[in-house]
Structure formats: C-alpha cells, structure tokens
C-alpha cells in the first residue's frame, strides 16, 4: 500500500488517473494532455503500474492503459475501516 500512496502523492499521476477514469488510453494519448516529455509520462505510468493503480494491455502496436479498480476498492475499504467506531466496553462495532 505504500507504493499506492506514493503514486497518489504526485499531481501528474493523479491527473493521469483522472484521464483514465474517462477512457482507456495509450501513452501517447495521455502525453498529449501534458507539456512534459513522453519519457517522463512513461516513467509516471511505470510507477502507477508498479503501484497496481493501472494495468496495460498490448493492442496491435500500442499499449493501452486502464484503471485497476480493484486497488481503489481495497483503498476505500481500508479507509472506511477508520469510520467504524468501536464500543469502548465491548470492542464491538457500532
């Protein structure tokens, strides 16, 4: 989960995730939304993939990136655990 939070800490990577929320895209299509170099975008994609936030699939000569919603579901579930109050005496959830 540390890699996930590290990946989410960067605004460029969050923007990439926002783009992929709309539709699956190639690295070139993603790069078109930024003023940085394509190798820099590739590095961001590599970190997102390593964190499990995106997955890729080769389609012809392109690699198409998409969100890995499973990791987001795990994060939400983990965070939701903090909203569950414990009864001080019994230890049961309320």
TrEMBL record:
The keyword rRNA processing does not apply. It comes from the Bacteria. Pfam families: HTH_5. CDD domains: HTH_ARSR. Residues 1-87 form the HTH arsR-type domain. PROSITE patterns: HTH_ARSR_2. Keywords: DNA-binding, Transcription, Transcription regulation. NCBIfam families: HTH_metalloreg, repress_SdpR. This is ArsR family transcriptional regulator. It comes from Mesobacillus zeae.
């Amino acid at each position: 989960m540390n890699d996930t939070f590290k990946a989410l800490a960067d605004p460029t990577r969050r923007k990439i995730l926002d783009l992929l929320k709309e539709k699956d895209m190639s690295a070139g299509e993603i790069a078109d939304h930024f003023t940085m170099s394509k190798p820099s975008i590739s590095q961001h994609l590599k970190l997102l993939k390593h964190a499990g936030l995106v997955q890729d699939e080769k389609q012809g000569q392109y690699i198409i990136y998409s969100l890995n919603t499973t990791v987001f579901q795990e994060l939400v579930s983990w965070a939701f655990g903090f909203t569950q109050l414990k009864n001080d005496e019994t230890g049961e959830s309320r």
